[in-house]
Specification:
The protein has 154 residues and is α/β, with parallel strands linked by helices. It is 30% helix and 28% strand. The chain contains five helices and nine strands; from the N terminus they run βββααβαβαββββα. The strands form three sheets. It has a five-stranded mixed β-sheet. A two-stranded antiparallel ribbon has the order 1-2. It has a two-stranded antiparallel sheet with strand order 6-7. It starts with 12 loop residues before the first strand and ends with a helix.
Length: 154
């Protein structure tokens, strides 16, 4: 499981328009990578809207934001358009990135066990080192908390 102080994994995601994206693309800049279960669900929508509302503040703090789920680019595009989101989203189709970050976990709902993405956020410094990890994220106030940590990070 990825922890604070670890180097960010050298992984590849599918960005919008099918272009590859990797945390290494942001070397020299701060990066927030947040994992969320599914586009267009209540908690995931709220989280994306909260990061969008603070996007300019993150930019002023020299920090990029990247949302990650297993949804494909077409579904991401519809999600972005429906809610006028400005945060870029990426696809982890095979789940390998979720595995590398430790966000692919067993969940339970109504007694049924299944595998899914655990809502988690990682703040990566300019050198590609994970500086903060939030697991089992509760959405209200989370984006602001991440922004505060990003501002404190040199």
């Amino acid at each position: 499981m990825l922890s604070e102080g670890d180097p960010v994994p050298d992984v590849k995601l599918e960005g919008m328009e099918g272009k590859p994206v990797s945390p290494a693309d942001f070397k020299g800049q701060k990066l927030v990578i947040y994992f969320y279960p599914k586009d267009d669900t209540s908690g995931c929508t709220r989280e994306a809207q909260d990061f969008t509302a603070l996007a300019q503040d993150f930019e002023k703090a020299g920090t990029w934001i990247l949302g990650v789920s297993k949804d494909d680019a077409e579904k991401h595009r519809k999600f972005i358009d429906k809610y006028d989101l400005s945060v870029p989203l990426a696809t982890d189709a095979d789940g390998s990135v979720c595995e590398a970050f430790g966000t692919w976990v067993q969940k339970s709902m109504y007694g049924r066990k299944y595998m899914g993405i655990d809502r988690a956020t990682f703040l990566v410094d300019r050198d590609g080192v994970v500086k903060r990890v939030w697991r089992k994220v509760k959405v209200p106030g989370h984006a602001q908390e991440v922004l505060t940590a990003a501002r404190e990070l040199a």
